[in-house]
Amino acid sequence: MRKSKSDRKKSRWKYIFLSGIIIGFIIIMGTNRAVSFTSSNQYCSSCHSHPHAISSWKFSTHYDNHSGIVVKCVECHLPPDGIEYLTKKIKFGVKDLYGEFFKDASEINWDEKSKLEHAIKYTFKESCIKCHQNLFPLNLSKEGSEAHLYYTQIPDQIHCINCHLNVGHYSGETGYSKNVLFGKTSAESEIFNEPFELTSFNNYTEYIPGTNVSFGMVAIKGGSFMMGSSENEKYRQPDEGPITHIHISPFFMGKIEVTWDEYIAFYNQTASEGRLPEKTKKASATMKADAITGATPPYGPPDQGWGMGSRPAITMTHHAAEVYCQWLSLITGKKYRLPTESEWEYACRGGTESVNFFNIEPKHFEGKSIFSRLFNKGNPDVDNYVIYAGNAQGKTEEPRKMEENPFGLINMLGNVSEFCSDWYSPETYSHFSDKELTNPKGPVNGEEYVIRGGSFKSIEKNIRSASRAHTETDKWLLTDPQIPKSIWWYSDCDFVGFRVVCEPDKNILNSDSK
Questions:
Q1: Contact 250, 220 (CB under 8 A)
Q2: Which architecture, in CATH terms, is 204-513?
Q3: Rounded to the nearest 5°, which phi and psi values hold at 426?
Q4: What does DSSP say about strands 244-248 and 223-227: parallel, antiparallel, or unpaired?
Q5: Helix/strand/coil for 407
Q6: Angle at Cα 424 formed by Cα 418 and Cα 425, nearest 5°?
Q7: Which of 401, 408, 361, 411 has the alpha carbon at shortest distance from 381?
Q8: Within 13 A of 422's CA, how many CA atoms are on the CB side?
Q9: Would you call 101 helix, strand, or coil by DSSP?
């Protein structure tokens, strides 16, 4: 019997429906296979041009461990299964393809890409927790238990890789644990018995008694300058004014920032968990290091694995820098301290009144577009004077030959930002009641301290003589699990150091003025 028109229409829709189910099933299966295929370690390594991604993964505990479990790339670098997994996979995939076809892998700074601030964007805490559900296993150390307990109190503020950055890609023994070997060395070398005898107001080289370490000090003649920035200065911030006429007395200042060699000399002579051998202590009758109690061992490598030596010392707290100055004063018989903010700006300017001592207007491409990042590559004219984001390789540098400022100081606006002795206030200059001041010292109290000068992380707009910043204690101690937190080391700050000032004896100034 011939089907009616209505029955034929129903049959047609039934076939369409069944065909849709079959096609949908094929699409789902195909998509699932495509997702599975593009989520394999082999596929990931075929696109990623990082030269050490696979080898460092195979040396890590996510590959080489007692249980034999191998953690795949996507298990860390994508969220757990779900819509977010697919959206992030598409987003990262497009980015990777762009990099594969349009970027030169040899020009990419892979060390910089491996740092926490970059890695945290591509590693998901939810994925960490999916595997590591028990934060207090039986074999966890006491320090580990304290750290994980601290994490449970502020889980929204800390990512797992803040402390476990290298568990997925091994990069040496840089775990977040107490570094009891910090500062220890077996090297034998000739040591200085006495500090430099200061008899005139001239540049000099200081010798640290009981060590082979020395450093240069520059004589900064007194004078006057206009502190702060004018309202029409490009990139000016509200806390940089109003401009005030300042008189500064003569002082000595470190030619470069305090190096690791200098800071480790302090640590070895004062650390609460280690002193120099007795025979070394007796090398100088003036040495009184035992009168100063110094830092406890840091967690992990405070140099971030970049190297020590003549690189600027970093990650110490403002308190640690002040104690260093007290120690240096004690063993040299001079008065060393941190510079005041007015001394620092006077020394940085070196008699100039321009936006920076090299008189180059800063350039900065605002925004986060591909084009702004593409063209914000640094300035060859600036490269000769400071180490900053445009020429640094994502880390501090040794004080290689950079152009000195007019006073003979190096890297006043780059390499690392520098502590000042003043408390910070955005209203500091507004509170200067007089139009002319002599050696001002800022607020009498506060919560954070002034830091001045750009660093290896700074873009051009922040390498200006008047640019101000301040410590961020809570932020810089976020991942420190100790209770109370360390007064010696910042767990989360790698771009601040300091340079010292020495106050000249009045007799020296009087004799030189005759």
A1: yes
A2: Alpha-Beta Complex (3.90)
A3: -65, -15
A4: antiparallel
A5: coil
A6: 145
A7: 361
A8: 25
A9: helix
82: how many CB neighbours lie within 10 A of its CB?
A: 10
CA 244 – CA 428 distance, rounded (Å): 11
Q: What is the C-alpha separation between 258 and 265, in angstroms, rounded?
A: 11
Element at 478 (helix H, strand E): none
Distance, CA of 72 to CA of 86 (rounded, Å): 16
How many CB atoms are located within 10 Å of the residue 239 CB? 19
Sheet holding 223-227, edge to edge: 223-227, 244-248, 436-438
Cβ(273)–Cβ(180) below 8 Å: yes
Gyration radius of the chain's alpha carbons: 29
CB 170 within 8 A of CB 254: no
Q: Are 259 and 313 in contact (CB under 8 A)?
A: yes
Residue carrying structure tokens 């890297």: 411
The answer to whether 234 and 288 have CB atoms below 8 angstroms apart is no
Distance between CA atoms of residues 127 and 7, nearest Å: 53
Q: What is the DSSP string of 248-262?
A: E--EEEESSPPBHHH
Task: Read off φ and ψ for residue 205, nearest 5 degrees.
Answer: -110, 120
Name the residue type at position 446.
G
Residue from 421, 465, 498 nearest 257 by CA: 498
The single-letter DSSP state of residue 104 is -
DSSP-derived secondary structure for 313-342: P-SB-HHHHHHHHHHHHHHHSSEEEPPPHH
Tokens 């079959």 belong to 22
pLDDT tens sequence for the chain (514 residues): 555 656 555 566 666 666 666 666 566 555 567 666 677 777 777 766 666 777 777 777 887 777 788 888 878 888 887 788 778 777 877 777 777 767 776 677 767 777 777 788 888 888 888 888 888 888 888 778 878 888 888 888 888 888 887 788 777 655 555 665 677 665 556 789 999 999 999 999 999 999 999 999 999 999 999 999 999 999 999 999 999 999 999 999 999 999 999 999 999 999 865 434 343 333 333 445 566 888 888 888 899 889 999 999 999 999 999 999 999 999 999 999 999 999 999 999 999 999 999 998 887 544 444 443 444 455 777 889 999 998 888 899 998 778 999 999 999 999 999 999 999 999 999 888 667 899 999 999 999 999 999 999 999 899 999 999 999 999 999 988 888 899 999 999 999 999 999 999 988 887 665 4
DSSP category for residue 312: B
Class of domain 36-162: mainly alpha
Is residue 270 within 8 A of residue 294, CB to CB? The reply is yes
Structural domain boundaries in the chain = 36-162, 204-513
Whether 272 contacts 294, CB under 8 Å: yes
> Running DSSP on this structure, what letter comes out for residue 349?
H
Q: How far apart are CA 178 and CA 295, in angstroms?
A: 12
User: Which helix (H) or strand (E) segment is 218 a member of?
Assistant: strand 214-220
